[in-house]
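Q: Could you fold this chain for me?
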Amino acid sequence: MRGSCEVCGNPIKSGGGPGRTASYCSQACRQRAYRERRRADGMPPARELLSDLGDRLGRVRLAPGTAFHADVEGLTTRFAQLRRLAREAGQEPGQGQGPGQEPGHGPGREPRQEPGREPGQGPGQKPRRGAAGDSDTGRVTSAGAGRVTTSGAEDVTHPRPKSVTAPGPEFVTPPAPGNVTPVAVTKSDDAGFTALVEGHRRELRVHCYRLLGSYDEAEDLTQEAFLRAWRAKETLDGVDNVRAWLYRIATNLCLDFLRRQNRRPVPYEPVPGMDSGDGPPPPRMPWLQPFPDDQLPEPAAPRHEPDEQAVAGETLELVFLTAIQRLPPRQRAAVILRDVAGWSAQETADLLGASVASANSAVQRGRSALREALPGRREDWSAPATAPSATDLALLQRYMEAAARADIDAMVDLVREDAVLTMPPNPFWFTSRDALFGFVRPNLDPASPMFAGHWRHLPVRANGQPAVAGYLRRPGTSVFRAQLIDVLRIEGGRIAEITTFEPHLFPAFGLPMTLR
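A: Sure. Below is the predicted structure, expressed as structure tokens.
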């Protein structure tokens, strides 16, 4: 079976396996389609980015250390956007191609692994490739390197401070313990304003992530919130509470985004020709991405009731994040603002444009829905989440070592019989150990004609859970290339769930794209 690439028109060879046909002939074409969609989102052109970076670099303060850190943090997003533009400029299909090479392929090289988006996918969804695959026709995952062809709550009492004149509804809150003390910043004090704003970047980014479930979208909307704050600053005589002001802007941006997307988790659908196990289909969130633990803000001092503390500590775990994503956007925002960010009921009501009674009702309904959606393993939901135990870390080490040795039997022993594997944004899912390893065994076995190659893993932390970053060295090559991030949920000394993500977020975890 053959098809044509939707970008360049070149023929696409199909492996003949189950699943949908590929839409692009290479990662370069996939990335080109992705860029065409992203341009509509209004990314600043390179010249504007360079001018802004020049201005910001000229204002960087080397002392004190807190100011230096804040100023440099303010440069990271602009540099990331500039790198993206430069990468796009150097990856146009047809540039630097040799005779007979596909776009995006160099002599003896594999396709570039860049994120893309296929027609019909919403913003933030990545191309329909395997969690570790490097093309539409080769899906690989270390947890199963299978090859397929697819392309009225009580008020929290806070004193209500003065309102801030700014775009949007009046909405301010006192800073939580550990946050920046409110100070007056005049519109002429660019450096002071930048330092205060950048001091809240991590907090705002993880707030957006809780609302959206996507690291890329959280990063984009956090930056948009800061840009809007910067533009609005010129109209202000002062900002008494930067944290409250930024939360208002970021929350409204996220709610507007969610209204446009209208997305909710839905159960996975059966994949033709594939045994997914006999368990119920898990919820599918194609936009879901992991969040690096080292980008989390410093925790504030406890200030909530026990169940609210649990929400604050666990809403980054993937199973809890999935449950929160099931809530309607405004209900989701109400729960996060009250139980995580520490807003009062009055302030939450002001932001949502509702009465206090209505806001409290939304919080109560949201908490109730979360309890129903949470897994039975947390019988005492008020128990705060804890770091992985020494036993869990030892299990993680054995998992990595078994994968490196291609010791499939050892890997099977580490996994529960009812283990679940999902690979967002891809449609593949498994709800039993037998089905999972039936999918991956051929590509892990060196004696199999479908052997994908040798694996190396590095331990990481994502969403408060143990995780591994997988690198694959394919037969006949000498370089281990980034393939996947496996986020693990461990129960009873064995792996109960694996969520496999594609590799484009390796830089966000501080990881290289290749190992030798």
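A (continued): The chain has a mean pLDDT of 74.
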